[in-house]
Amino acid sequence: LFHDNSLKLETFASGIGVIGNITASGHITASQNISSSGYVYGNRYYIHGSKATYVGLADNGDDLLFEAADDIRIRPTDDVLIYGNDDSIYVHMDGVNKRVGIGTSIPQQALHLSGSTGATSGIRQSRAGVRIWNQEIDSSGRLQWGHRETEGGARTTTFTLDDNGNVGIGT
């Protein structure tokens, strides 16, 4: 098939060849694989024909969206890494050793938190309407437990353990 004296569509024993772009206003359905040597654009790529399970775009194409009718499972043969805008690793799931690191690229325990401040390496527990508890390592290397009455409230330290094994309660 020619258009403007240029070949646009040709048939082969194995199928049909198209020279140029293909535009569809409806669905494209295939009973076999669809492959491309270039980019394939779309807002949603459905994984299952009868369920709302797809990979898509959100926030005008700025965000990648995974949506499933049930669970989303990730089964790598090695690690799963989540990077920040600064190319640092935010979360490292070590598939070989079964460890999770937050703020570290080399988790050493089942859960390893690392950061440069108590806020970036601490553990927080909160429940609506009650105290907000947290565990942090302060700038002197002391492990501390404390609480806040409100989100913006001052922190009260209730327990401290220093590098020498000294314990402080209420200090």
Find the structural class using helix and strand composition. Answer: mainly beta
**Strand/helix succession:** EEEEEEEEEEEHEEEEE
Contiguous helical run count? 1
Q: How many angstroms does the end-to-end distance come to?
A: 85 Å
Our estimate of the beta-strand percent is 35-45%
Reported for the largest beta sheet, the result is: 5 strands, antiparallel
Radius of gyration: 27 Å
Structure description:
The chain has 171 residues and is an all-beta fold. The chain has one helix spanning 118-121, and strands spanning 2-3, 6-7, 9-12, 15-18, 44-46, 54-58, 63-67, 80-83, 89-94, 99-102, 111-113, 123-126, 132-137, 143-148, 156-161, 167-169. The protein has a five-stranded antiparallel beta sheet. It is elongated and about 85 Å long. The relative contact order is 0.06. The model has no long low-confidence stretch (mean pLDDT 86).
Q: What secondary-structure arrangement, pairings included, does this model have?
A:
Layout: E1 2-3, E2 6-7, E3 9-12, E4 15-18, E5 44-46, E6 54-58, E7 63-67, E8 80-83, E9 89-94, E10 99-102, E11 111-113, H1 118-121, E12 123-126, E13 132-137, E14 143-148, E15 156-161, E16 167-169
Parallel strand pairs: 10-11
Antiparallel strand pairs: 1-2, 3-4, 5-6, 6-7, 8-9, 9-10, 12-13, 13-14, 14-15, 15-16
